[in-house]
């Protein structure tokens, strides 16, 4: 009998070569690294949630199709009646389901670079070839390059985040429409940051049969629940449903999300506060001559600064955690990304950065 005592002999080489998705330890820190909403829910709503949790039949499996939750999502997110909905344990899971479903031999998953890192990582997990078309230097979509790549490689699926992470900008909507029209495969518009952008492809779904729109409740204030959704033609959704693991959305997520969605005004008001803080912060940062600040339609701001790594480390020593993107892509050289927090957190970040730069 052979003895396999070493993961290197068993695990796929591309998985051995992967660096794990890194979540930075954040206990006790001002946490501005993960695009979370910094606000809690109002106490009265928390009390209602506590009662729901106390009464939840957690000895039973949850509703497998989560129909009540889907109904609440339809109402809250203006999902067209004729469109199907697929729910995921976060939108990460939905990316994975789509990638698994289209991963024929030689199939290609396409996105732009830099983009949300999970597009590339999930392509590796699911054994589908990844292709990233570089953005222009100003982080706009390089439509010409995209159209050439689409014609040449005929990707099974294209993922575009709108607004894009980590750059924060909305790509030109007409350019995206050209991509959708040129593509013979699926185009998934990932609208994770929709609440901060006020632009969407949701209403275009009925015009383009190869278009899917993805959303998440994570950036809206429910990151801990893990709920993402895909909206699109029911012929697509029906196929993806087959790959969704049974009961992927737990009972607590179903009950709490449904309850909170009856109060979307709370989440939307928080998003408005975040947007006005974004504008205050963007003005403050832009006034610092050492920084190049990129415009953002999301709940974070990307900026470039000399010695970004050093600045990131000093901020960390001061208990302020942001995200270092320097080193992840050529276009992101010396770039850092800060999530918009509460006014107090933002001010602490801005003051610390100002002090470090003028030391
Ligand atoms: N899409 C984009 C563009 C993101 O930035 C993120 C989270 N950083 C996600 C999807 C995943 O979000 P979640 O799994 O929490 O729904």
Instruction: Give, in order, the helices and strands.
Output: HHEHHEHEHEHEHEEHEHHHEEHEEEH
Provide the list of bound ligands, each named once: 4'-deoxy-4'-aminopyridoxal-5'-phosphate
Q: Report the β-strand fraction as a percent range.
A: 15-25%
> What is the end-to-end distance?
65 Å
Question: Main sheet: which strands, in order across?
Answer: 2-8-7-6-5-3-4
Structural class: alpha/beta
Q: What is the count of DSSP helices, taking H or I runs of 4+ residues? A: 14
Query: Residue-averaged pLDDT, rounded?
Result: 96
Strand runs, count: 13
Poorly predicted tracts of residues: none
Rg over alpha carbons: 21 Å
Largest sheet: 7 strands, mixed
What is the 3D shape? Answer: globular
- Estimate the helix proportion, in percent: 40-55%
Topology record:
Elements lengths: L6 H4 L2 H4 L13 E2 L11 H13 L11 H11 L6 E5 L2 H12 L5 E6 L3 H9 L3 E6 L8 H11 L3 E5 L11 H10 L3 E5 L20 E6 L1 H5 L5 E5 L1 H8 L9 H11 L2 H23 L4 E3 L6 E6 L2 H10 L2 E2 L1 E2 L10 E5 L3 H15 L2
Parallel strand pairs: 1-11, 3-4, 3-5, 5-6, 6-7
Antiparallel strand pairs: 2-8, 7-8, 9-10, 10-13, 12-13
